[in-house]
Protein backbone atom coordinates (compact mmCIF):
# COMPACT_ATOMS: atom_id res chain seq x y z
CA UNK A 1 0.00 0.00 0.00
CA UNK A 2 1.01 3.55 -0.58
CA UNK A 3 1.38 4.34 3.08
CA UNK A 4 4.32 1.97 3.32
CA UNK A 5 6.10 3.43 0.29
CA UNK A 6 8.99 5.78 0.77
CA UNK A 7 8.15 9.43 0.20
CA UNK A 8 9.71 10.99 -2.86
CA UNK A 9 10.48 14.69 -3.07
CA UNK A 10 7.87 16.55 -5.03
CA UNK A 11 8.83 17.48 -8.56
CA UNK A 12 9.13 21.15 -9.38
CA UNK A 13 6.64 22.35 -11.96
CA UNK A 14 8.28 22.19 -15.36
CA UNK A 15 7.69 24.48 -18.26
CA UNK A 16 6.99 22.57 -21.45
CA UNK A 17 7.91 23.54 -24.96
CA UNK A 18 5.27 22.88 -27.60
CA UNK A 19 5.08 19.35 -28.95
CA UNK A 20 4.27 17.87 -32.31
CA UNK A 21 2.18 14.82 -33.09
CA UNK A 22 5.00 12.58 -31.95
CA UNK A 23 5.51 11.95 -28.26
CA UNK A 24 8.34 13.90 -26.79
CA UNK A 25 10.41 11.41 -24.82
CA UNK A 26 11.24 14.03 -22.20
CA UNK A 27 7.59 14.91 -21.63
CA UNK A 28 6.58 11.26 -21.62
CA UNK A 29 9.14 10.52 -18.97
CA UNK A 30 8.09 13.58 -16.97
CA UNK A 31 4.48 12.41 -17.00
CA UNK A 32 5.41 8.85 -16.06
CA UNK A 33 7.71 10.19 -13.31
CA UNK A 34 4.92 12.36 -11.94
CA UNK A 35 2.45 9.47 -12.02
CA UNK A 36 4.93 7.23 -10.22
CA UNK A 37 5.55 9.86 -7.56
CA UNK A 38 1.83 10.39 -6.88
CA UNK A 39 1.16 6.64 -6.62
CA UNK A 40 4.19 6.17 -4.43
CA UNK A 41 3.45 9.01 -2.03
CA UNK A 42 -0.33 9.07 -1.89
CA UNK A 43 -1.66 6.03 -3.67
CA UNK A 44 -4.38 5.55 -6.24
CA UNK A 45 -7.00 7.65 -4.48
CA UNK A 46 -4.88 10.76 -5.01
CA UNK A 47 -4.14 9.85 -8.62
CA UNK A 48 -6.37 12.31 -10.44
CA UNK A 49 -5.73 13.90 -13.79
CA UNK A 50 -5.57 17.31 -12.10
CA UNK A 51 -2.90 16.11 -9.70
CA UNK A 52 -0.98 14.58 -12.58
CA UNK A 53 -1.16 17.71 -14.73
CA UNK A 54 0.11 19.82 -11.84
CA UNK A 55 2.89 17.47 -10.87
CA UNK A 56 4.11 16.85 -14.41
CA UNK A 57 3.74 20.44 -15.56
CA UNK A 58 1.75 19.07 -18.48
CA UNK A 59 -1.82 19.44 -19.70
CA UNK A 60 -4.80 17.15 -20.00
CA UNK A 61 -4.94 17.40 -23.80
CA UNK A 62 -1.30 16.32 -23.98
CA UNK A 63 -1.82 13.41 -21.65
CA UNK A 64 -4.96 12.24 -23.43
CA UNK A 65 -3.27 12.55 -26.81
CA UNK A 66 -0.62 10.08 -25.69
CA UNK A 67 -2.74 7.77 -23.56
CA UNK A 68 -6.36 6.98 -24.32
CA UNK A 69 -7.23 6.58 -20.65
CA UNK A 70 -5.88 6.68 -17.12
CA UNK A 71 -5.70 2.90 -17.30
CA UNK A 72 -3.42 3.02 -20.35
CA UNK A 73 -1.15 5.53 -18.63
CA UNK A 74 -1.02 3.46 -15.43
CA UNK A 75 -0.20 0.37 -17.46
CA UNK A 76 2.81 2.21 -18.92
CA UNK A 77 3.85 3.34 -15.45
CA UNK A 78 3.80 -0.28 -14.34
CA UNK A 79 5.63 -1.62 -17.36
CA UNK A 80 8.33 1.06 -17.15
CA UNK A 81 8.91 0.10 -13.52
CA UNK A 82 8.87 -3.60 -14.42
CA UNK A 83 11.92 -3.08 -16.63
CA UNK A 84 13.89 -2.68 -13.42
CA UNK A 85 12.41 -5.88 -11.97
CA UNK A 86 14.20 -8.78 -13.56
CA UNK A 87 14.45 -12.22 -12.06
CA UNK A 88 15.85 -15.17 -13.91
CA UNK A 89 16.14 -17.89 -11.33
CA UNK A 90 17.75 -20.96 -12.87
CA UNK A 91 18.44 -23.41 -10.09
CA UNK A 92 17.82 -26.42 -12.29
CA UNK A 93 14.64 -27.17 -10.32
CA UNK A 94 11.21 -26.02 -11.50
CA UNK A 95 9.69 -25.74 -8.05
CA UNK A 96 12.57 -23.67 -6.67
CA UNK A 97 12.66 -21.39 -9.74
CA UNK A 98 8.94 -20.65 -9.45
CA UNK A 99 9.17 -19.97 -5.71
CA UNK A 100 12.19 -17.67 -6.17
CA UNK A 101 10.51 -15.70 -8.94
CA UNK A 102 7.14 -15.30 -7.26
CA UNK A 103 8.60 -14.41 -3.87
CA UNK A 104 10.72 -11.72 -5.53
CA UNK A 105 7.66 -10.45 -7.37
CA UNK A 106 5.51 -10.17 -4.26
CA UNK A 107 8.30 -8.47 -2.32
CA UNK A 108 8.82 -6.02 -5.20
CA UNK A 109 5.10 -5.26 -5.33
CA UNK A 110 4.87 -4.43 -1.68
CA UNK A 111 8.23 -2.67 -1.24
CA UNK A 112 7.85 -0.28 -4.17
CA UNK A 113 4.96 1.57 -5.77
CA UNK A 114 4.64 -1.29 -8.28
CA UNK A 115 1.96 -3.14 -6.33
CA UNK A 116 -0.09 0.01 -5.90
CA UNK A 117 0.32 0.76 -9.61
CA UNK A 118 -0.84 -2.68 -10.70
CA UNK A 119 -3.81 -2.48 -8.33
CA UNK A 120 -4.64 0.85 -9.96
CA UNK A 121 -4.42 -0.69 -13.43
CA UNK A 122 -6.95 -3.33 -12.34
CA UNK A 123 -9.36 -0.70 -11.12
CA UNK A 124 -9.07 1.53 -14.16
CA UNK A 125 -9.41 -1.17 -16.80
CA UNK A 126 -12.68 -2.33 -15.21
CA UNK A 127 -14.25 0.88 -16.45
CA UNK A 128 -13.38 0.35 -20.10
CA UNK A 129 -14.09 -2.83 -22.04
CA UNK A 130 -11.46 -2.02 -24.68
CA UNK A 131 -8.87 -1.65 -21.96
CA UNK A 132 -9.84 -5.05 -20.59
CA UNK A 133 -9.32 -6.63 -24.02
CA UNK A 134 -5.92 -5.02 -24.34
CA UNK A 135 -5.06 -6.11 -20.83
CA UNK A 136 -6.00 -9.74 -21.49
CA UNK A 137 -4.45 -10.08 -24.94
CA UNK A 138 -1.27 -8.02 -24.56
CA UNK A 139 -0.46 -6.89 -21.03
CA UNK A 140 -1.22 -10.21 -19.34
CA UNK A 141 0.91 -12.31 -21.73
CA UNK A 142 3.81 -9.87 -21.26
CA UNK A 143 3.44 -10.16 -17.48
CA UNK A 144 3.48 -13.97 -17.70
CA UNK A 145 6.64 -14.11 -19.77
CA UNK A 146 9.05 -14.92 -16.94
CA UNK A 147 6.83 -17.72 -15.65
CA UNK A 148 6.66 -19.19 -19.15
CA UNK A 149 10.43 -19.07 -19.49
CA UNK A 150 10.80 -20.96 -16.23
CA UNK A 151 8.38 -23.65 -17.41
CA UNK A 152 10.09 -23.82 -20.82
CA UNK A 153 13.45 -24.50 -19.18
CA UNK A 154 11.86 -27.30 -17.14
CA UNK A 155 10.49 -28.78 -20.36
CA UNK A 156 13.86 -28.62 -22.07
CA UNK A 157 15.50 -30.29 -19.06
CA UNK A 158 12.91 -33.08 -19.34
CA UNK A 159 11.53 -32.26 -15.88
CA UNK A 160 7.97 -31.86 -17.19
CA UNK A 161 6.21 -32.53 -20.49
CA UNK A 162 5.04 -29.63 -22.66
CA UNK A 163 1.30 -29.19 -23.05
CA UNK A 164 -1.80 -27.19 -22.12
CA UNK A 165 -1.36 -28.01 -18.43
CA UNK A 166 1.45 -25.45 -18.45
CA UNK A 167 -1.00 -22.76 -19.59
CA UNK A 168 -3.24 -23.70 -16.69
CA UNK A 169 -0.30 -23.52 -14.29
CA UNK A 170 0.72 -20.06 -15.53
CA UNK A 171 -2.85 -18.76 -15.24
CA UNK A 172 -3.33 -20.20 -11.76
CA UNK A 173 -0.08 -18.83 -10.38
CA UNK A 174 -0.83 -15.43 -11.92
CA UNK A 175 -4.41 -15.45 -10.64
CA UNK A 176 -3.28 -16.43 -7.16
CA UNK A 177 -0.64 -13.71 -7.08
CA UNK A 178 -3.09 -11.05 -8.18
CA UNK A 179 -5.71 -12.23 -5.72
CA UNK A 180 -3.12 -11.77 -2.97
CA UNK A 181 -2.26 -8.32 -4.33
CA UNK A 182 -5.81 -7.02 -4.43
CA UNK A 183 -6.64 -8.43 -1.01
CA UNK A 184 -3.54 -6.85 0.59
CA UNK A 185 -2.21 -10.30 1.44
CA UNK A 186 1.33 -10.17 0.06
CA UNK A 187 2.94 -10.93 3.42
CA UNK A 188 1.90 -14.58 3.26
CA UNK A 189 4.82 -15.70 1.14
CA UNK A 190 4.34 -19.29 2.27
CA UNK A 191 1.15 -19.34 0.16
CA UNK A 192 3.47 -19.21 -2.83
CA UNK A 193 5.32 -22.33 -1.72
CA UNK A 194 2.10 -24.30 -1.26
CA UNK A 195 0.63 -23.24 -4.59
CA UNK A 196 3.83 -23.91 -6.48
CA UNK A 197 4.27 -27.31 -4.83
CA UNK A 198 0.76 -28.35 -5.84
CA UNK A 199 1.11 -27.17 -9.42
CA UNK A 200 4.52 -28.80 -9.87
CA UNK A 201 3.27 -32.10 -8.47
CA UNK A 202 0.39 -32.00 -10.93
CA UNK A 203 2.70 -31.24 -13.85
CA UNK A 204 5.19 -33.96 -12.97
CA UNK A 205 2.47 -36.59 -12.97
CA UNK A 206 0.65 -35.23 -16.03
CA UNK B 1 -14.45 6.46 -11.77
CA UNK B 2 -17.39 8.60 -10.94
CA UNK B 3 -16.26 11.49 -13.12
CA UNK B 4 -16.66 9.30 -16.17
CA UNK B 5 -20.15 8.19 -15.20
CA UNK B 6 -23.01 9.46 -17.27
CA UNK B 7 -24.77 12.46 -15.81
CA UNK B 8 -27.90 11.45 -14.02
CA UNK B 9 -30.72 13.77 -13.26
CA UNK B 10 -30.66 14.82 -9.66
CA UNK B 11 -33.10 13.02 -7.46
CA UNK B 12 -36.17 14.81 -6.32
CA UNK B 13 -36.08 15.34 -2.61
CA UNK B 14 -38.49 12.92 -1.00
CA UNK B 15 -39.93 13.16 2.42
CA UNK B 16 -39.06 10.15 4.52
CA UNK B 17 -40.71 9.10 7.69
CA UNK B 18 -38.30 8.94 10.56
CA UNK B 19 -36.42 5.72 11.06
CA UNK B 20 -34.98 4.16 14.12
CA UNK B 21 -31.49 2.79 14.67
CA UNK B 22 -32.59 -0.56 13.28
CA UNK B 23 -32.64 -1.22 9.56
CA UNK B 24 -36.05 -1.38 8.03
CA UNK B 25 -36.16 -4.64 6.07
CA UNK B 26 -38.43 -3.10 3.44
CA UNK B 27 -36.09 -0.18 2.85
CA UNK B 28 -33.05 -2.43 2.86
CA UNK B 29 -34.62 -4.62 0.22
CA UNK B 30 -35.68 -1.60 -1.82
CA UNK B 31 -32.12 -0.28 -1.81
CA UNK B 32 -30.65 -3.67 -2.73
CA UNK B 33 -33.28 -4.07 -5.47
CA UNK B 34 -32.45 -0.64 -6.86
CA UNK B 35 -28.71 -1.37 -6.79
CA UNK B 36 -29.27 -4.69 -8.58
CA UNK B 37 -31.41 -3.02 -11.23
CA UNK B 38 -28.82 -0.31 -11.93
CA UNK B 39 -25.96 -2.82 -12.19
CA UNK B 40 -28.05 -5.11 -14.34
CA UNK B 41 -29.28 -2.42 -16.73
CA UNK B 42 -26.35 -0.03 -16.94
CA UNK B 43 -23.39 -1.55 -15.13
CA UNK B 44 -20.95 -0.23 -12.59
CA UNK B 45 -20.21 3.03 -14.38
CA UNK B 46 -23.79 4.16 -13.83
CA UNK B 47 -23.80 3.00 -10.23
CA UNK B 48 -23.55 6.32 -8.43
CA UNK B 49 -25.05 7.18 -5.07
CA UNK B 50 -27.28 9.77 -6.76
CA UNK B 51 -28.64 7.14 -9.13
CA UNK B 52 -29.21 4.76 -6.25
CA UNK B 53 -31.00 7.34 -4.12
CA UNK B 54 -33.32 8.19 -6.99
CA UNK B 55 -34.04 4.60 -7.95
CA UNK B 56 -34.61 3.39 -4.39
CA UNK B 57 -36.53 6.43 -3.23
CA UNK B 58 -34.12 6.60 -0.32
CA UNK B 59 -31.54 9.11 0.86
CA UNK B 60 -27.78 9.19 1.14
CA UNK B 61 -27.83 9.49 4.95
CA UNK B 62 -29.99 6.38 5.16
CA UNK B 63 -27.79 4.41 2.81
CA UNK B 64 -24.61 5.49 4.57
CA UNK B 65 -26.08 4.69 7.96
CA UNK B 66 -26.66 1.10 6.87
CA UNK B 67 -23.57 0.59 4.74
CA UNK B 68 -20.27 2.23 5.46
CA UNK B 69 -19.33 2.44 1.79
CA UNK B 70 -20.45 1.66 -1.73
CA UNK B 71 -18.25 -1.42 -1.53
CA UNK B 72 -20.10 -2.74 1.53
CA UNK B 73 -23.43 -2.19 -0.18
CA UNK B 74 -22.27 -3.90 -3.37
CA UNK B 75 -20.99 -6.82 -1.33
CA UNK B 76 -24.48 -7.24 0.13
CA UNK B 77 -26.02 -7.02 -3.33
CA UNK B 78 -23.73 -9.84 -4.43
CA UNK B 79 -24.33 -12.00 -1.41
CA UNK B 80 -28.09 -11.59 -1.60
CA UNK B 81 -27.98 -12.71 -5.24
CA UNK B 82 -25.65 -15.58 -4.33
CA UNK B 83 -28.36 -17.07 -2.11
CA UNK B 84 -30.17 -17.99 -5.31
CA UNK B 85 -27.04 -19.56 -6.77
CA UNK B 86 -26.63 -22.93 -5.19
CA UNK B 87 -24.68 -25.80 -6.66
CA UNK B 88 -23.98 -28.97 -4.80
CA UNK B 89 -22.50 -31.30 -7.36
CA UNK B 90 -21.88 -34.69 -5.80
CA UNK B 91 -20.89 -37.06 -8.58
CA UNK B 92 -18.54 -39.03 -6.35
CA UNK B 93 -15.58 -37.66 -8.32
CA UNK B 94 -13.59 -34.63 -7.14
CA UNK B 95 -12.58 -33.47 -10.61
CA UNK B 96 -16.11 -33.64 -11.99
CA UNK B 97 -17.60 -31.90 -8.94
CA UNK B 98 -15.14 -29.01 -9.24
CA UNK B 99 -15.73 -28.65 -12.97
CA UNK B 100 -19.52 -28.71 -12.53
CA UNK B 101 -19.44 -26.12 -9.76
CA UNK B 102 -17.03 -23.70 -11.46
CA UNK B 103 -18.72 -23.94 -14.84
CA UNK B 104 -22.06 -23.14 -13.19
CA UNK B 105 -20.44 -20.23 -11.35
CA UNK B 106 -18.92 -18.69 -14.47
CA UNK B 107 -22.17 -19.09 -16.42
CA UNK B 108 -24.10 -17.49 -13.55
CA UNK B 109 -21.66 -14.58 -13.42
CA UNK B 110 -21.97 -13.79 -17.10
CA UNK B 111 -25.68 -14.51 -17.52
CA UNK B 112 -26.88 -12.38 -14.60
CA UNK B 113 -25.76 -9.13 -13.01
CA UNK B 114 -23.75 -11.16 -10.49
CA UNK B 115 -20.51 -10.96 -12.45
CA UNK B 116 -20.86 -7.21 -12.89
CA UNK B 117 -21.64 -6.88 -9.20
CA UNK B 118 -18.59 -8.85 -8.08
CA UNK B 119 -16.39 -6.86 -10.48
CA UNK B 120 -17.81 -3.73 -8.85
CA UNK B 121 -17.03 -5.05 -5.38
CA UNK B 122 -13.41 -5.55 -6.45
CA UNK B 123 -13.15 -1.99 -7.70
CA UNK B 124 -14.77 -0.40 -4.67
CA UNK B 125 -12.84 -2.29 -2.02
CA UNK B 126 -9.57 -1.21 -3.60
CA UNK B 127 -10.33 2.30 -2.41
CA UNK B 128 -10.68 1.37 1.25
CA UNK B 129 -8.14 -0.66 3.24
CA UNK B 130 -10.72 -1.66 5.88
CA UNK B 131 -12.97 -3.00 3.16
CA UNK B 132 -10.09 -5.06 1.80
CA UNK B 133 -9.52 -6.59 5.23
CA UNK B 134 -13.18 -7.45 5.56
CA UNK B 135 -13.18 -8.87 2.05
CA UNK B 136 -10.19 -11.12 2.74
CA UNK B 137 -11.19 -12.33 6.18
CA UNK B 138 -14.97 -12.70 5.80
CA UNK B 139 -16.30 -12.33 2.26
CA UNK B 140 -13.65 -14.46 0.59
CA UNK B 141 -14.02 -17.44 3.00
CA UNK B 142 -17.80 -17.31 2.51
CA UNK B 143 -17.34 -17.33 -1.27
CA UNK B 144 -15.01 -20.34 -1.03
CA UNK B 145 -17.39 -22.41 1.06
CA UNK B 146 -18.78 -24.54 -1.77
CA UNK B 147 -15.31 -25.37 -3.06
CA UNK B 148 -14.27 -26.39 0.45
CA UNK B 149 -17.30 -28.65 0.80
CA UNK B 150 -16.42 -30.38 -2.45
CA UNK B 151 -12.86 -30.97 -1.26
CA UNK B 152 -14.09 -32.16 2.16
CA UNK B 153 -16.30 -34.78 0.52
CA UNK B 154 -13.33 -36.01 -1.52
CA UNK B 155 -11.33 -36.29 1.71
CA UNK B 156 -14.08 -38.25 3.43
CA UNK B 157 -14.32 -40.59 0.43
CA UNK B 158 -10.57 -41.18 0.71
CA UNK B 159 -9.99 -39.71 -2.74
CA UNK B 160 -7.45 -37.17 -1.44
CA UNK B 161 -5.66 -36.56 1.86
CA UNK B 162 -6.55 -33.57 4.03
CA UNK B 163 -3.87 -30.90 4.38
CA UNK B 164 -2.68 -27.43 3.45
CA UNK B 165 -2.52 -28.34 -0.24
CA UNK B 166 -6.31 -28.08 -0.23
CA UNK B 167 -6.05 -24.45 0.89
CA UNK B 168 -3.70 -23.82 -2.00
CA UNK B 169 -6.11 -25.52 -4.39
CA UNK B 170 -9.06 -23.42 -3.17
CA UNK B 171 -7.07 -20.19 -3.49
CA UNK B 172 -5.79 -21.04 -6.95
CA UNK B 173 -9.19 -21.99 -8.34
CA UNK B 174 -10.70 -18.84 -6.81
CA UNK B 175 -7.87 -16.65 -8.09
CA UNK B 176 -8.16 -18.14 -11.57
CA UNK B 177 -11.92 -17.64 -11.65
CA UNK B 178 -11.65 -14.04 -10.56
CA UNK B 179 -8.85 -13.34 -13.03
CA UNK B 180 -11.16 -14.60 -15.78
CA UNK B 181 -13.98 -12.42 -14.43
CA UNK B 182 -11.99 -9.19 -14.33
CA UNK B 183 -10.46 -9.81 -17.76
CA UNK B 184 -13.87 -10.51 -19.35
CA UNK B 185 -12.78 -14.03 -20.19
CA UNK B 186 -15.64 -16.11 -18.80
CA UNK B 187 -16.41 -17.73 -22.15
CA UNK B 188 -13.35 -19.94 -21.98
CA UNK B 189 -14.95 -22.61 -19.85
CA UNK B 190 -12.35 -25.15 -20.96
CA UNK B 191 -9.81 -23.20 -18.87
CA UNK B 192 -11.72 -24.53 -15.87
CA UNK B 193 -11.25 -28.11 -16.96
CA UNK B 194 -7.50 -27.68 -17.42
CA UNK B 195 -7.01 -25.92 -14.09
CA UNK B 196 -9.11 -28.43 -12.20
CA UNK B 197 -7.35 -31.37 -13.83
CA UNK B 198 -3.94 -30.01 -12.82
CA UNK B 199 -4.97 -29.27 -9.24
CA UNK B 200 -6.62 -32.65 -8.77
CA UNK B 201 -3.60 -34.49 -10.16
CA UNK B 202 -1.39 -32.61 -7.71
CA UNK B 203 -3.68 -33.44 -4.79
CA UNK B 204 -3.96 -37.11 -5.64
CA UNK B 205 -0.19 -37.47 -5.66
CA UNK B 206 0.38 -35.28 -2.62
Automatic annotation (TrEMBL), chains A, B:
Residues 48-67 bind DNA. Residues 25-85 form the HTH tetR-type domain. Residues 1-23 are annotated as: Disordered. It holds the Pfam family TetR_C_11. PROSITE patterns: HTH_TETR_2. Keywords: DNA-binding, Transcription, Transcription regulation. This is TetR/AcrR family transcriptional regulator. The lineage of its organism: Bacteria, Pseudomonadati, Pseudomonadota, Gammaproteobacteria, Pseudomonadales.
